[in-house]
Amino acid sequence: MNWENFKHQFHPSWRSRMRPFIESEECDKIYAYLKAESKRGKRVAPLSMHVWRCFLETPLDDIKAVMVGLCPYHTLKNDAPVADGLLMGCSITGKLQPTLEQFYGGLEKEFYNGLNLNYTPAPDVSYLADQGVLMLNAALTTEINKAGSHLEIWEPFIKYLFEEIINHLGVPIIFLGKDAAKYKKYTGIFAHVFELSHPASAAYKNSEWDTEGVFSKVDVLLEETNGFTVQWLPVDVPF
Description:
Elements: H1 12-22, H2 25-39, E1 44-45, H3 53-57, E2 65-69, E3 76-77, E4 80-81, H4 98-112, H5 126-129, E5 133-137, E6 142-143, H6 151-164, E7 173-176, H7 178-181, E8 193-196, H8 199-205, H9 214-226
Parallel strand pairs: 2-5, 2-7, 7-8
Antiparallel strand pairs: 1-6, 3-4
Helix pairs in contact: 2-6, 4-8
């Protein structure tokens, strides 16, 4: 692939690290597949301009934690993809998805249980990306109405991303769901890895998502290493 056509989809801090993959045969295979699927009439989510969005929103130098899901939302709303390029983000359609609603509910219970917070859950998760949480899907694309259909073609990229870049950062990594957790094989042996059920599973079961205290544990690590914690829930509390 021609790097000049891609570089503006990445924050400048990522460019020198991403260029070798973009110019590789593995990346050529990904885009050859996507182009062939498009010619067959297949629709893909998210829109092409948002495929690499998580690497534009969160500078490499600012990463404090990585959260990994499986693949983007595979549905449409008003004929537009729900997926916006960030893990669980649904800001384009502006309609909160059940998965993200479960995510917020789990965080509220972990951090503010019993406070009866008054806040409006937002479909935009860029508030996490802006704090240094890389909101990553294991597959950056998926076929509409076919969840997980592009996982295989994106695996070489995920392998490169972890082995060549993320593992050297020493940041906590949170895998959401057993399928996403399969990619922990690419993390370093000294990585702080956490595994959780995916909020989508709770949405399917109509039950409450349990964070198992993972986000508090990540905050402890972040506080110890750089005096930083993440405001996981987009809410202002009166204390």
